[in-house]
Design goal:
Blueprint: H1 56-59, E1 74-77, H2 78-86, H3 98-104, E2 114-117, E3 127-130, E4 132-133, H4 135-143, E5 147-150
Parallel strand pairs: 1-2, 2-4, 3-5
Length: 159
């Protein structure tokens, strides 16, 4: 095989349509824009325009809002953590933090921290440093002889 013999498969690349190049091309004269009117002119952007009728986005009621200060946590069940310990992905002697859970593959991203949920069973004595946890999770961790340190998640001040 030679470099000068390499080419795309037939039909893989579609050449662009050259408009306004004579009536024989099929896209001559008006270049596919029709005749007259607003859209035949240049600089037209009528995305949500409905011919003067009240647009749909203005007819529908607006509800709720998005809290820009909301925190997003990784939610992990204690049963999932026990599975990671049994699979030797998580070290039981070290402190369980967000970084440790991400390294073990329990969480995919750091987000704003981790929140432990109480579903499942934990048999190993662990020390947690997390952003939050449920009462059932705390009871299960303490029953297994572990401890929990809650981290304060800072909210960025906007001025």
């Amino acid at each position: 095989m030679k470099l000068n013999g390499i080419s795309d498969n037939s039909g893989a690349k579609k050449s662009r349509m050259r408009v306004g190049r004579g009536i024989g091309s099929g896209k001559g004269k008006t270049a596919g824009r029709g005749v007259k009117g607003q859209t035949a002119r240049t600089g037209v952007a009528i995305k949500g325009f409905e011919g003067g009728q009240m647009p749909l986005y203005r007819r529908l009621p607006k509800r709720g809002f998005t809290n820009i200060h909301a925190k997003h946590f990784n939610e992990v069940n204690i049963g999932r953590i026990q599975t990671a310990i049994d699979a030797k992905k998580l070290d039981a002697k070290k402190v369980v933090t967000v970084e440790a859970l991400v390294d073990a593959g329990v969480c995919s991203k750091h987000l704003d921290g981790v929140r432990i949920l109480g579903s499942g069973e934990i048999k190993t004595k662990l020390t947690f440093e997390v952003a939050g946890l449920t009462k059932s999770a705390q009871a299960a961790i303490e029953k297994a002889g572990g401890s929990v340190k809650l981290l304060v998640v800072a909210v960025e001040a906007t001025a």
